[in-house]
What we know:
The structure holds two protein chains of two kinds.
Chain A: H1 2-26, H2 30-55, H3 58-88
Helix pairs in contact in A: 1-2, 2-3
Chain B: H1 3-26, H2 30-55, H3 59-84
Helix pairs in contact in B: 1-2, 2-3
Amino acid sequence: MTPILADALVVLGLAILTVGAYGVVRMPDVYTQLHAASKAAFLGVAALLMSAAVRGDGAIIARAVLIIALLTVTTPVAAHAIGRAARRRGEPMRSPAAIDET
Amino acid sequence: MSSVIFYAGIVWLALLLGVMVVRLPRAGTTAQRILVLDLLTLILIGLLALTAGEDQRSYALDAALALALLSFIATLAACRYHENRRPFT
């Protein structure tokens, strides 16, 4: 049961990570790319770390939980900093329905 | 973990890394470059997690932890520098 769960988590993580990378390649501007790069990529990496944790011993589980907790805290902060810097520098919004409310 | 899925995952993640490396100099703006670098380190963390799960050894996850911390600080410093030309005001 556990190897099947690890395999499923690896495939799930690869699929989500692929969606995130495809979103970064295809989205028109940095504000829409942030959605793919922060949420989808973090969830994919978290699934890969969980697949390492379900088969590992205590050391691997402790490190995987620590990395997932760290990424949960740091990924939104980094994404917010990127968006804030882009907005302050006046980088253009290129998505068709973009409305600049500032 | 079956070795077919492990090797397919390694190849696929390496392919994603290659796509991101090609994407890096072609990004239109500086914020997009910072974002692609951030995503590059996230994919590397995933690669290290995959090898740690296969080998049943924890030292790859030590490297992943250090990489996560370092990429967070690097992204913040790059964004602050891009925003007002000084890393920390």
